[in-house]
Amino acid sequence: MLPSRHATSEDRMTKNVIAFQGELGAYSHQACRISRPDMDVLPCRTFEDVIEAVRSHQAELAMLPVENSTYGRVADIHHLLPASGLHIIDEAFVRVHISLLGVPGATLGDIREAMSHTVLLGQCRKFLRAHSILPLTGTDTAGSAMEVAQRGEPALAALASPIAGEIYGLDELAHEIEDFKNNTTRFLVMSREPVRARRLNAEGGGLMMTSFVFRVRNIPAALYKAMGGFATNGVNMTKLESYMVDGQFIATQFYADIEGHPEDPNVARALEELDYFTSSMDILGVYPADPLRLRQKAEQTD
């Protein structure tokens, strides 16, 4: 399958464009391929640029990474989501398969240095050490693949996705070299308008997710009391994270993911109790759970 073409200036105003951060061949590009294979892609320089592309109607959707199973949450995303004005309409889990990519004709034995983003370099320490390959820090994964292709040095390789190898004409000298074989990144698909009518994912799974941010009132044990409604109403909270806002240590905002739809009676009761103990609460999105989440949930209950 050929990679989605780069959207041109003539069609960026159409509805069939999804924006992501990074160069063509980045893992965010892979997430676009998996989640929206029929859409054209719009690479953007920063996360802010991705959000602005949707707000300004250059793209219909945004693909944003929020967390990685090995390295935790993606910096800055939780600060950007509440102020973005966009709504989460889907989640996408992408297995991070890392390939060693070299110029045509190079062999694994030729490689002396490998370039990539620092996070990816840290995920391949065992492989690099076993083959005496020196890690080099690049701007990002796909950008490193592009640079390796441009430099054309047989001793220099990139650590990136197989898609990046396809796009930049590099040979895959080794594949799936990551230290952690379950390494997965979670992405959020966002749009200008909320979509809350769905109750099934693409594979027919019926578990819904709701994401929201809130600030607790300045009263003793406010967070404890706010969370109590989810426990008493049997609502499973899969994520709760805190982060500072406005540069103040006393101003804390919380990001949460729960299982269920706001119209479910137990979820509605839990959110009503939460509202009593919070000074603000905003729902960022209601969307079907990714099939991988459902499979992992089934494995835990077996």
TrEMBL record:
One of its GO terms (biological process) is L-phenylalanine biosynthetic process. It comes from the Bacteria. GO terms for molecular function: prephenate dehydratase activity. CDD domains: ACT_CM-PDT, PBP2_Ct-PDT_like. SUPFAM superfamilies: ACT-like (SSF55021), Periplasmic binding protein-like II (SSF53850). InterPro entries: ACT-like_dom_sf, ACT_dom, Chor_mutase/pphenate_deHydtase, Preph_deHydtase, Preph_deHydtase_CS. Keywords: Amino-acid biosynthesis, Aromatic amino acid biosynthesis, Lyase, Phenylalanine biosynthesis. Residues 211-288 form the ACT domain. One of its GO terms (cellular component) is cytoplasm. The keyword Amino-acid biosynthesis applies. Pfam families: PDT. Coiled coil: none annotated. This is prephenate dehydratase. PROSITE patterns: ACT (PS51671), PREPHENATE_DEHYDR_1 (PS00857), PREPHENATE_DEHYDR_3 (PS51171). Pathway: Amino-acid biosynthesis; L-phenylalanine biosynthesis; phenylpyruvate from prephenate: step 1/1. The keyword Nucleotide-binding does not apply. Residues 17-192 form the Prephenate dehydratase domain. It comes from Paracoccus aminophilus JCM 7686. Its EC number is 4.2.1.51. It catalyses: prephenate + H(+) = 3-phenylpyruvate + CO2 + H2O. The record marks 185 as: Essential for prephenate dehydratase activity.
